[in-house]
Design goal:
The complex is a heterodimer of chains A (289) and B (477).
Chain A: H1 2-32, E1 35-36, E2 47-48, H2 52-58, H3 61-93, H4 99-107, H5 114-125, H6 131-140, H7 150-178, H8 183-190, H9 195-223, H10 227-232, H11 244-252, H12 258-288
Antiparallel strand pairs in A: 1-2
Chain B: H1 3-32, E1 39-45, H2 48-65, E2 68-74, H3 76-89, E3 96-100, H4 104-109, H5 116-122, E4 153-165, H6 166-169, H7 172-182, H8 192-208, H9 226-235, H10 265-279, H11 290-298, E5 304-308, H12 309-317, E6 328-331, H13 339-345, E7 353-359, H14 367-377, H15 383-389, H16 402-410, H17 414-421, H18 434-450, H19 455-473
Parallel strand pairs in B: 1-2, 1-3
Antiparallel strand pairs in B: 3-7, 4-5, 4-6, 4-7
């Protein structure tokens, strides 16, 4: 009993902070999702409108388009980061000249603020003055214009995200690979297993928890991407890169449609939880079986 | 006049001016005494005029009064986000906020701002002897409430004007080539057809001579509202489409069918003309906001263009940033028939009169100290140096200051244009729903720019979207 009380006392500050900064804002957003509130409307008051915002959301073509674009962005970015991160982790497990230097350089993007990443990529990709369009034109005669080509802008947001976040995946997977016991690998080699068999039946299952954790982190981060993309494309051209985080930002801040913005936030949170749960089940089900 | 007489007169003048300065200093010190040690916080857009406040005026004020002033200069979007969130939530973080002319109506509708006229009338001890609202240019009227009181102290004002390269327009060979091709003299355009002809000529000229030169700028970003603004504030009015094509007196109608102009033949002509200019502008144009347009012109990549006045000074005079120093001319934008007559009669306008003020949020906890700073900022003595550092003029007398006159020469007569013909330009329409309608229509606008929808269909959709948003907001019945 005594230890229970002490446990609660020790936990209290954390629970308090979690409640104030996590639970209360969430409940507020949830409540707001059922209100109409635009401070610059003819009636700036908060008005309860039931599920009207949710009904509006279902038929909101802009929102649905942003969900579609976000899905594509998340899938391509996270999968690319996972594959690239794994190969880089494997490479960094080996010794080669300049390894320490390469590892440091490779990790640097992680410490750069997203808004700076977006600015730098914008400078590099702006038509006429950016180094990337310049080199593409000079080497391949390819006219790259991020302001007019939706596929180019979409692809660039993915490349930027991969550049920024692959080091995180690499570091996580290096930690997982380093911690693997050598015995199963030695046993498999003695039994004559090929490299691919070792990868599929030993390495992959053993680092699966690390992969799962990394994918969850990157998935949630990618779903709420705002600043990098805002700096690079502003959501354009058109709505090609208006990912859901940016869409919410535009609804809530410039448009000051707080009630509807809260509704989208709640729905996106729900979708994120569902996607993570599905992924968790999909990745762990074969293992449990 | 003998030397001794001159020396005596000079000494007297110095003594008198020193006496006046001492009297002024004495006022600031005495009035600020109760607030000494206090810190005022302001948020504004990172522009040359705002940077001058932060770097120069705030420091002078602090030195004189002991009141610390922290001015946060940030991006346009962030500035609004921070200011509105602060005032809406009533947190009182900021004692001063930048109010761009187009947002004042939204702020007034929400009673966000302190009535500075009333505040000074109620607190005579805070009223600086050299502060007088009558000193401001007529631009101050945009910051007045229905009762004529001022709710923001003007800190910048400029017009979006037609800049052209005097070196190119004055080159004898180019003039001859232009005459040969078009049959007319190469002078700044008065009509859209002339402008288009010049633009096409220089784009062709650049290509033929392997130069990085195009005929016009275009603020045509396909994902940033800067392009929306260029069309509605600077292009559509020159075709006779005013106030975004929304008729506030007619139940906020936007579509022609309901009495608006947003999808009118004039709006369509404006859109098609502007798109055709975008197509012969430098390749960075679809990714250009107001900042990049200034940079494009300063880099010598465009022969002419519509450029915000706030960028005119550094383009024309700062050799560390601009390649066209000394080669910049200013003119009124090209106009459709009847638009000048509309502007002169007050029924319309020919372009955008931009600018902003500093206001005090009602949620500020340091209103008295803040109003002292705003008056300090609005002194006549402060204005010339500020106008030279950034091309903004908010006081009538500033035009006559010698340093401003000198700057006017460098700017190709920009200040003369602002003073003499500024009345032909207008600020944004008095809509409290400014950002809301903009955001509701901008996605369709971007689709027009990308060619995903035709200009005609796009304008029809925008008019419908504007009316739907106005209905949703409760303005349109």
């Amino acid at each position: 009993m005594q230890s229970n009380r002490m446990g609660w006392i020790l936990l209290a500050p954390t629970l308090f902070l979690l409640g104030v900064f996590g639970v209360v804002p969430f409940l507020y957003v949830l409540w707001l999702a059922f209100q109409r509130w635009n401070p610059f409307g003819a009636n700036p008051d908060i008005v309860y409108i039931g599920a009207d915002n949710f009904r509006r959301l279902v038929f909101d073509a802009e929102f649905l388009a942003s969900v579609g674009a976000t899905s594509g962005f998340v899938v391509f970015a996270v999968v690319s980061e996972l594959i690239l991160g794994y190969f880089l982790a494997q490479a960094l497990m080996k010794n080669f000249p300049g390894k320490a230097w390469f590892r440091t350089i490779h990790t640097l993007p992680l410490i750069v603020a997203p808004i700076v990443v977006g600015s730098v990529w914008r400078l590099m990709t702006t038509p006429s003055i950016g180094i990337i369009p310049h080199l593409l034109d000079e080497w391949f005669g390819f006219q790259m214009n991020i302001g007019t080509s939706a596929p180019t802008a979409f692809l660039l947001t993915i490349i930027m995200d991969v550049w920024h976040w692959t080091p995180l995946v690499t570091l996580t997977l290096i930690a997982a690979l380093v911690s693997l016991p050598p015995d199963p690998f030695e046993q498999a080699q003695i039994d004559g297993a090929s490299k691919s068999q070792i990868f599929w039946y030993i390495t992959l299952p053993m680092i699966q928890p690390a992969i799962l954790a990394t994918v969850f982190i990157r998935l949630m981060d990618a779903l709420r991407t705002v600043d990098e993309v805002w700096m690079l494309t502003g959501g354009g051209p058109g709505a090609a890169t208006r990912y859901v985080g940016l869409h919410i930002w535009k609804i809530v801040f410039p448009k000051t449609d707080y009630g509807y913005g809260a509704t989208i936030s709640v729905v996106v949170l729900y979708l994120t939880i569902v996607v993570c749960w599905l992924l968790y089940v999909a990745l762990l089900a074969p293992r449990n079986k | 006049m003998s030397f001794s007489l001159k020396a005596g007169a000079s000494a007297l003048a110095i003594l008198l001016s020193a006496g006046a300065a001492l009297a002024d200093d004495a006022f600031w010190k005495k009035a600020a005494e109760p607030y000494k040690g206090m810190t005022l916080r302001g948020v504004t857009e990172a522009t040359p005029p705002s940077n001058y406040i932060s770097d120069v005026i705030a420091k002078e004020f602090e030195e004189l009064t002991g009141i610390r002033v922290e001015i946060e200069t940030t991006s346009w979007d962030q500035m609004y986000t921070k200011a509105i969130q602060d005032m809406e939530a009533g947190t009182g973080i900021y004692d001063m906020v930048y109010i761009e002319q187009d947002i004042i109506y939204a702020y007034l509708s929400r009673d966000f701002l302190v009535n500075t006229t009333q505040k000074l009338a109620d607190n005579a001890a805070l009223k600086a002897p050299n502060y007088d609202e009558a000193n401001f240019t007529t631009f101050a009227n945009y910051f007045k409430g229905d009762n004529g009181d001022l709710f923001g102290i003007p800190m910048e004002a400029f017009i979006k004007l037609y800049l052209y390269r005097t070196d190119l327009f004055g080159d004898a060979d180019i003039q001859a080539a232009f005459k040969e091709k078009t049959g007319r003299d190469l002078v700044p355009a008065k009509t859209h057809a002339e402008y288009a002809e010049i633009a096409q000529f220089f784009t062709d000229y650049g290509q033929a001579n392997d130069m990085e030169l195009w005929g016009t700028t275009a603020q045509a970003h396909t994902g940033h509202v800067a392009s929306w603004y260029e069309y509605y504030e600077s292009v559509a009015p020159t075709f006779g489409v005013y106030n975004w094509g929304i008729d506030a007196d007619n139940n906020y109608a936007a579509s022609v069918e309901n009495g608006g102009q947003m999808n009118s033949p004039e709006a369509l002509a404006a859109m098609e003309w502007w798109l055709s200019m975008r197509d012969i502008a430098p390749p960075e144009s679809p990714a250009s906001t107001w900042t990049e347009v200034g940079t494009t012109f300063a880099a010598g990549r465009a022969a002419q263009g519509l450029v915000y006045g706030e960028n005119a000074a550094w383009i024309a005079s700062d050799e560390s940033k601009s390649r066209v120093v000394g080669n910049v001319g200013v003119a009124l934008p090209p106009l459709a028939e009847g638009v000048m007559a509309d502007a002169e009669s007050g029924a319309g306008y020919i372009g955008y009169y931009d600018g902003g003020a500093f206001g005090i949020p009602v949620t500020s906890k340091n209103k008295e100290a803040a109003i002292l700073f705003l008056q300090y900022m609005a002194q006549e003595e402060v204005q010339p140096g500020w106008a030279v550092a950034a091309p903004r003029i908010t006081h009538t007398a500033t035009y006559e200051a010698p340093e401003v006159q000198a700057m006017n020469e460098e700017l190709g007569g920009y200040y003369d244009l602002l003073r003499d013909q500024g009345y032909l330009f207008a600020g944004a329409p008095p809509y409290p729903f400014h950002a809301q309608v903009r955001e509701a229509t901008a996605p369709i606008f971007f689709n027009i720019l990308l060619g995903e929808v035709s200009p005609k269909d796009g304008l029809d959709q925008m008019a419908a979207a504007a009316e739907a948003e106005l209905k949703n907001l409760g303005y349109r019945k």
